[in-house]
Amino acid sequence: MDVIIFCGGRGSRMSDETYDKPKPMINIGDKPILWHIMKMYSNKGFNRFILTLGYKGDVIKNWFNENLNNENWDINFVDTGVDSEKGARLKKVEKKVSSANFHVTYGDGVSDIDLNKLVEFHNKHNGEATMTVVRPPSRFGFVSLDGNIVDEFEEKPQMQTGFINGGFFIFNESIFNYLTNDDNCDLEYGTLDVIAKEKKLHAFKHNGFWQCMDNIREKEYLDGIIKSQEIPWLEKNV
Q: What is the pLDDT of residues 19-41, one digit of tens each?
């Protein structure tokens, strides 16, 4: 199965880091987060990648051409425009897709999701699309009080209610019927909401580790995990 990764955005909320490189090339540890995402997939046997390039796309191509020594990855770099929305980027790589069902993900999030179970789930329901949903970590610590005494404290616990889009998808090739080459064609607000209303978008619930990198604080959090040498998204065990 092909793995399409969105790599074209500017990452404006991390402007200091993205002045000279696109967001997926921000390092966590000593390698770009994009490498970590691709390693997640290759550890589960998915080695064909289509990278939708945009903002400073040459930085991505150059890094992989110079640093990809030991990985058996088939990478297709596709310039999908600097200002394209994700739906347009996806449509612009339609002719590059070689599998009837394919993975799609963002270039800024990692997880210990079992990608093979995600595939099994998608194949069972036979729908247009599968979206991984996760319970987001809280932005603030949880404090429980007994009068004026703190009897429980947890720094940034995982929320126990509600799910959000976790960013790991499987789409059937029929999704291209919902998309256009217009740069304004969005994925979440134009396509997935339509498919959801048609009852064709299925949710794969993931309760394990998940973390996106939307700001410097989240980058530092991921850096800390790597320094601990216990990196959940790089575990090879199924």
A: 788 999 999 999 999 999 999 99
pLDDT of 120-135, one tens digit each?
999 998 778 999 999 8
Residue with tokens 């739906």: 87
Q: May I ask the CATH class of domain 2-234?
A: alpha beta
Where do the structural domains in the chain lie, given as residue ranges? 2-234
Instruction: Give Cα 153 to chain centroid, integer Å.
Output: 30
Taking the C-alpha atoms of residue 220 and residue 210, their distance in angstroms, rounded to an integer, is: 15
Give the list of residues 6+ apart from residue 119 with CB closer than 8 angstroms, or none: 1, 101, 170
**Is 0.85 surpassed by the pTM of this model?**
yes
Residues 43-87: tens digit of each pLDDT:
999 999 999 999 999 999 999 999 987 889 999 999 999 999 999
DSSP string, the chain: -EEEEEE----GGGTTTSSSS-GGG-EETTEEHHHHHHHHHHHTT--EEEEEE-TTHHHHHHHHHHH-SS---EEEEEE--SS--HHHHHHHTGGG--SSEEEEEETTEEE---HHHHHHHHHHH--SEEEEEEPPBPSS-EEEEETTEEEEEESSPBPSS--EEEEEEEEEGGGGGG--S-TT--SIIIIIHHHHHTT-EEEEEE-S-EEE--SHHHHHHHHHHHHHT--GGG----
- Round to whole Å and give the CA distance between 10 and 8: 7
Band of residue 238 on the pLDDT scale cut at 50, 70, 90: very low
